[in-house]
Amino acid sequence: MSTLTGKHVLRTDLLSNEELELIFSTASRFENALRSGARLTNMEGQVLATLFFEPSTRTRLSFETAMLRLGGQVISMADPKASSTAKGESLADSVRTVAGYADVIVIRHPQKGAAQEAADAVAVPVINAGDGTGQHPTQALLDVYTLRKEKGSLHGLSMALVGDLKNGRTVHSLVYLLARFGVRLLFVSPRGLEMPPELNAELKKLGSDVSEGRDLAAAMRESDIVYVTRIQRERFDDPAEYDRLKGSYVLDMDMIRQAKPGITIMHPLPRVDEIAREVDAYQGAAYFRQAANGVPIRMALLALVTGRE
Ligand code: NCD
Question: Which of 12, 59, 242 to mutate to test the pocket of ligand 1 (most atoms within 8 A of CB)?
Answer without folding.
Answer: 59
